[in-house]
Amino acid sequence: MFSSKHSSCTTILVGKKASYDGSTIIARNEDAGDAINPKKFVVVEPEDQPREYHAKLTKFTVKLPDNPLRYTSVPDAVADKGVWGEAGINSHNVAMSATETITTNARVMGADPFEKDGLGEEDLLTITLPYINSAREGVQRVGKLLEKYGTYESNGILFSDVNEIWYMETAGGHHWVAQRIPDDAYVIAPNQTGIQEIDFDDPDSFMYSKDLRKFAQEHHLNPTSHFNFRKIFGSDTQLDHRYNTPRAWYGQRYFDPESVKDKTPMSNDLPFICHANRKITLEDIKFVLGSHYQDTPYDPFAPGVDYKTVPYRPIGINRNQELSILQLRPGLPSTYSAIQWLAFGSNPFNTLTPFYTNVVNTPDCYRDTTGTFDSHNAYWANRMISLIAANHYQEVMQDVEDYQLKEMAYAHERVNKIDSMMADKEASGSHVVRALGQANARTADHIMTATEALLTTLVIKTSQDVPGSFNREHY
């Protein structure tokens, strides 16, 4: 089995009746195994999509359909280990994020071993997103690929369109299940198998590999009287209790404190499908996906705390590489209803930039990331900010929070202005695409300028009192 280098993500899904504006929203932190894993934001045109896909880390190869759609992607800037496209929206306004690495158990792996040359996170967005017309089709395509080629890891995969959200989880090498998220619900998935009771007689809410029930029965995998996917195919280990479960606990605590008042960060019975005590906003999602257990005893940035002694793994950590919040908005023309809200670097210290996805290119400061540090590049500037801020948290967080508030307000203002501009235009086809591309560039330029200004402020402020400083007035 190959171990994914992107192995510690956190996912939030928000149904259209649970969100603040009726959008379907899917979001996921991409967390790498190391602090530095440069990312870029690109558009893949049909002519640039491969017709035969070859993985870099395994021998997996697949022939692809000849009619791909255009789509956005957030691949690795250095492609020597594969694409790792992670998150995007295609030209039919179907969104996908892949993958949320999840857990399984020894009985499952013994009954359906992983395929060492199967598909995995490296491959999934590239071989799926250009070929689907709905969230449901995304599940169906990946399901067929899993059953034919298998996988070398356990993963959760997110799909959405303007009407539905589906969350798919793999089980062993070839089995899987997917659940439609109720419109009035939200989900937090923290690297654990999450889906619970499966209703095999409800095809509107569940899809699964054709032999799933028989497979579990033949291999004596089900310890319960029901078909609880988490109990059968997931894990319940000490690592889960400290690394995974606390993230779900904190997110559920944020969205409705009453729902977890009798729970602890190590509770192993937190629900998969949840309901908030209010409508969920983009700011809520960003806060949770950048959170580090604020206002609890487990915050590694609290004054006087040694971060090495904090018992639970936070959500917002230095290994966050990018966050994509994929928003599909109702009641607007499909030409400009889809937005990919993107943040690079560590989420406690960055901000979101809204990119309309019906475009043929992305701004160069987000697109042209390389493996070499460049303060004029969005990934690298945010990476440096997070390095400084983490080491001088109490000193600089007021500057960071002021930046985040101001630039998020600007982002909302831009979306309102661009929507109004597009509604006033009688443009179609390439005219819309060009106008949205120009609008994205202006948005990115503004936020990049603000980000560089914050970086300058933090460098100046934190350079005054470091080892090796000398002020003659002190002597």
Automatic annotation (TrEMBL):
Reaction catalysis annotation: an L-aminoacyl-L-amino acid + H2O = 2 an L-alpha-amino acid
Gene Ontology BP annotations: proteolysis
Endoplasmic reticulum in keyword set: no
Gene3D superfamilies reported for this sequence: Penicillin V Acylase, Chain A
Recorded GO MF terms: cysteine-type exopeptidase activity; dipeptidase activity
Key words, A-Z: Dipeptidase, Hydrolase, Protease
Domain of life: Bacteria
Transmembrane annotation, as ranges: none
InterPro entries, A to Z: C69_dipept_A-like, Peptidase_C69
Enzyme Commission no: 3.4.-.-
Enzyme class: hydrolase
Family indicated by similarity: Belongs to the peptidase C69 family.
Descriptive protein name: Dipeptidase
Organism: Lentilactobacillus kefiri (Lactobacillus kefiri)
Lineage of producing organism: Bacteria, Bacillati, Bacillota, Bacilli, Lactobacillales
